[in-house]
Amino acid sequence: MSTHYDIIFTGGGAAALSLAYRGMQSGIFANKQLLIIEPSAKTSNDKTWCFWEEQAGPFEDILFKRWAHMKVYGNNGREIVLQPGSFEYKMIRSIDFYEHTLNYLKQQTNITFLQASVDEINANKVGKAVAHAEGVGYSADTIFNSIFKKPHLQSDQNYFIQHFLGEIIQLPANNHIDPEAIHLMDFRTSQEHGTAFFYVLPLHNNQVLVEYTLFTKQVLDRTAYKTAIKAFIQEHLMVSDYEVLEEEYGEIPMTDFPFQRFDGRVVNIGSAGGDTRGSSGYTFSNIQRTVSAILQAYRKTGQPVFQKPTISKKHQLYDKTLLRVLNNNQYQGHEMFTDLFTKAPAHKVFRFLDGTSTLIEDTAIMTSLKSKHFIFPFINSI
Questions:
Q1: Predicted confidence band at 124 (pLDDT cuts at 50, 70, 90)?
Q2: Any alpha helices (H) in 250-382, and if so which ranges?
Q3: Both 141 and 102 in a single domain?
Q4: CATH number, domain at 261?
Q5: Buried b (16+ CB within 10 A) or exposed e, 284-311
Q6: 3-state class (DSSP) for residue 254
Q7: Hey, CA dihedral for 50, 56, 58, 60, is it positive or negative?
């Protein structure tokens, strides 16, 4: 096995496989030797990626389901039917993504896979970058790193964890679930731990994904998630007889830490490169934008370096402000998000949360919220 490659991917999840797959599909990586280092075999459905889009995306063929009808429920039980315009909410199961990308990539003669853990990465700004995996050094002209490590924060930086437990449940045929409408945020649950909501996605054949999600600084004991899910299903989905088919637990960083995209010959991608939106935790769409920017840079210059950040400075400022508001807890998260979806059209909210909104749209979004809670956090964020 060679120890030098044109490109090394440290980590083989959504970001790395998206870039490797799309780079090969476009022909940009066709004449490059690639090494993908990942400890997991990626043979299980360990994640679910959801996102909203107005147009067809690069992985349209493997969508598990899409929805055009969405609702939000306030903590007081109020139902808000969203008007998403041309947006659809889309879901990809990780196992389908892994099979789709890996089946293709493993057929390519210029790609090597190494199932191992990465111990260290040396960015080396002058010569080659080196990734050390289980005692062996592998060098490359460029390393795309997607291994996330919690950053060391300054005193004025915020770090929340979006943590969740989801269960795919089998319901009886006579259930009351609308099969075409998702609960994007359902706040009909206790807010004692912080911002907490349920996420309800009707799937196929009376199966539903019910996910309990929190934005807090500490995770819960696993039984607390299960207890909350059971209570929600019984009280609000009005089902007591159901079977749990699958379970998924995850943690996503929500932070205003300025992640470094480029470090010598290392390019950080995914959450490691700041592709997770600080105010929402959504990542998959930002990964695809970053991949597009990298491939466009290769087309123009032969190098992966691009200038425009995936999440603009303006939207990073909004994220920092919102996280400060959440941290102050004077404008509770459930109230803020309910106000957002009540007073602004959903398609504008989606663009705002996606980082693609205009300044005029931003102003409309801001004025839909209780501005008194944002004045000082905004000033302190500049």
A1: confident
A2: 284-301, 313-328, 333-343, 346-354, 359-367, 375-381
A3: yes
A4: 3.50.50.60
A5: bbbbbbbbbbbbebbeeeeebebeebbb
A6: strand
A7: positive
Total tally of structural domains belonging to the chain = 3
36 and 135 both lie in a single domain: yes
Q: For position 355, what pLDDT does the model report?
A: 87
Cβ contacts of 203 within 8 Å, gap of 6 or more: 64, 65, 168, 209
Same domain, 106 and 120: yes
User: Quick check: is 54 in a domain?
Assistant: no
Distances, alpha carbon 200 to alpha carbons 84, 148, 184, 250, in Å? 17, 28, 7, 16
Q: What is the pLDDT of residues 267-317, one digit of tens each?
A: 999 999 999 999 999 999 999 999 999 999 999 999 999 999 999 999 999
Angle at 363 between CA 360 and CA 367, to 5 degrees: 145
Q: Is it the case that residue 125 has pLDDT exceeding 70?
A: no
57-66, 90-99, 108-117, 328-337: the lowest-pLDDT one = 328-337
Same domain, 172 and 274: no
**Structural domain for 277, as ranges:** 4-47+92-153+257-301
Nearest to 346 by CA among 335, 334, 337: 337
Same domain, 342 and 227: no
